[in-house]
């Protein structure tokens, strides 16, 4: 299948269907991959070829412009996936000391890492200072003072960026809209003076960047450029004060298509951002972007086994059908947390029209994936577009084991991370 991106035409990867209607991943039968991997359900499957191709198209969009693609590792922290992205030249956007340490152990160059987050502990600040990363992105004037104190205690100069809250609201779920003036994220324009005052009187801080992040699941470039405009205004102000900035960071949040319709590819945001920088005479600065979901989300699926069908109601207008599967909200939190809808389809036959509510085994009414059509009760179903914020948000709630993860490259299973199993959970709880 082919999709059009401007004047380019590129092959899609990830989930698809064969002419016979059976599910595929990366062009290979998903049923065959499930058998080859030898894992029990629920299990995540990822198409590394698709992830690699998406990253390559994004990197190509920068041309010769100085840049850093800081992959938001919170989207999917699997080592196999992060290594695949690092091999394409990306860096990492980390939001905790754990993510920072993981990035370093996976081989991310220190100067290709930024550390974000509104409540960094002293230990995490020390960790970042010791690693000499590109920048610690300060999200408030008090945090800047804390970074200054830790840098002085360690006898180093802290490389910092200011994350600006652009006061821009996007068309997205309230839980992932981060750029409005009531959000906990970033420094409001009216509070920047306090941060500038700290920077001017401190020899322990070096301002290297101005950043922002307007939120997740962007559906168009306009809000992205609106927040970028604020960053550029602040950057000009900072340069006028004599600071030698190295970069501007426009954030990420590029959405993916969770249903019918088309959204801009990450490359389109980059092309718009580069033109925007040139117009504002800031093209000499490195452009940092922080995509997460858009690099991995479309290239992962969650495979689940159907436990049973349940029907109720004696009259047609009262009839209800449920399809109960062995994957729950502990395996994929997004529907419960964000009311997100992930398309669910049978593994071995095409989708049908008879409505069923697909629900999991967790003892919560929010363990509900939505209503989908099935003409007959399938043995196995595929939950699409689950490559981002799936496994990384999974839990062992209700005493349920974490799912397995299977990594597919060029149609072959290249790595399997098995489920730790319920016994692992039981053993740890017995010792608690």
Q: Describe it for me?
A:
This protein is an alpha/beta fold and 432 residues long. It has helices at 30-37, 48-61, 79-86, 97-105, 122-131, 141-154, 192-201, 222-240, 266-279, 293-296, 334-338, 422-431; strands at 2-5, 8-11, 15-17, 23-25, 28-29, 43-47, 67-72, 91-94, 113-115, 135-138, 158-165, 187-188, 205-211, 247-252, 286-290, 300-312, 320-325, 344-346, 355-359, 368-373, 380-383, 404-409, 412-417. It folds into 2 domains: 15-45 and 298-431, Lyase, Ornithine Decarboxylase, Chain A, domain 1, CATH 2.40.37.10; 50-294, Alanine racemase (TIM Barrel, Alpha-Beta Barrel), CATH 3.20.20.10. Helix 8 links the parallel strand 13 and strand 14. Helix 2 (48-61) runs parallel beside helix 9 (266-279), helix 6 (141-154) packs parallel to helix 7 and helix 8 runs parallel beside helix 9 (266-279).
Keyword list:
single chain; 432 residues; alpha/beta; Lyase, Ornithine Decarboxylase, Chain A, domain 1; 2 domains; 12 helices; elongated
How do you describe this structure in short?
The protein has 432 residues and is of the alpha/beta class. It has helices at 30-37, 48-61, 79-86, 97-105, 122-131, 141-154, 192-201, 222-240, 266-279, 293-296, 334-338, 422-431; strands spanning 2-5, 8-11, 15-17, 23-25, 28-29, 43-47, 67-72, 91-94, 113-115, 135-138, 158-165, 187-188, 205-211, 247-252, 286-290, 300-312, 320-325, 344-346, 355-359, 368-373, 380-383, 404-409, 412-417.
